[in-house]
Amino acid sequence: MSAPVIPEELLERVEQLSAAVDELPDARARELAQELVGAVIAMYGDGLERIVAAIEESREAGAAILDALAQDGPVASLLLIHDLYPVPLEQRVNEALDTVRPYMESHGGDVELVGIEDGVARLALQGSCHGCAASQATLELAIKQALDEHAPDLAGLEVSGVAEPFAPANGLPLFDAAAAAAFELPIAHAGPGEPAPSAPAPARWAALDELGPPLAPGELRALEIDGAALILASVAGALVAYRDSCACCGEPLRDGRLEQTLLRCPGCEVEFDLRRAGRAAGGEPLQLTPVPLLEAGGIRVAV
């Protein structure tokens, strides 16, 4: 009996073999190998297209089968590669944005899909997210991950409403506006790219399994995730998270006073509006560092 196929290991092996083909010293051998791969993919693609067409002819029963196939990761990737995925790209992009709207709204903003052209989605930040100097964190850690999960076949992403950065007094870097204005999304079956030598370590989603009892309205709570000091707050019916560092003096905010949506630093007493992405309430050019937080399927933060 043959060993079970593990999709992740199979994908890794395919990538290794593809790299080995590209390194063949004989140009003719490379061309033949690449042509063979292309012919095999086309052959299986034609067969897959016929299978999908036969399933679709079964009407309601066929729709249920296609829906089940679309939920299977490896099968979904094959459907995407051959442009046979049953849910249109625009619908999947909108579904992805719906999953991050609670986080965006918790910071007084929103995101809109302007359109999709040549596989590139154009988004517009609205509300407090428009012109927000912390937009890169929102884009790269919330929107981008949601799109990776729902629409990995997107060729790229263009975003309007990203402001030029300012330097907070505590010296914490916020973002590079040029880099955030447009970034590419991975194509289905594409491996992760190698980061530039100067690029920061990529953030990941961490589940708050030991958060304790739910936060009461107006409650402020400090916690540490993977060495990162954070504060969580329940304001105006939403849960928000920030780095535990004042944008003015750099002191921890965990002992600050939270009144409605305003958090006062216990050190310098500057107030920050937690419903407006942590901007200074007095108009100072200061802003806390927001941490993307999602509540779907359990509370998760990006660190």
SSE ordering: HHHHHEEHEHEEEEEEEEEEE
Q: Going by CATH, what is the homologous superfamily of the largest domain?
A: Rieske [2Fe-2S] iron-sulphur domain
CATH architectural arrangement of the largest domain: 3-layer Sandwich
Radius of gyration: 23 Å
Domains (count): 3
Average pLDDT works out at: 74
Number of strands: 14
Look at the helices and sheets and give the structural class. alpha+beta
The termini sit apart by 44 Å
Tally of individual helices: 7
Oligomer: single chain
Note the overall shape. elongated
- Return the CATH topology of the largest domain: Rieske Iron-sulfur Protein
- State the share of residues found in helices, binned by percent: 25-40%
Strand content is 15-25%
Within the largest sheet, what's the order of strands? 1-2-3-4
- Which spans have pLDDT < 50 for at least 5 consecutive residues? 164-201
- Which CATH class of the largest domain is shown? Mainly Beta
The profile of the biggest β sheet is: 4 strands, mixed
Task: Give the helices and strands, then pairings.
Blueprint: H1 7-22, H2 27-56, H3 59-70, H4 73-81, H5 89-106, E1 109-117, E2 120-127, H6 135-150, E3 156-160, H7 177-181, E4 182-183, E5 205-207, E6 220-225, E7 228-235, E8 238-243, E9 257-259, E10 262-264, E11 271-273, E12 279-280, E13 293-294, E14 300-302
Parallel strand pairs: 2-3
Antiparallel strand pairs: 1-2, 3-4, 5-14, 6-7, 7-8, 9-10, 10-11, 11-12, 13-14
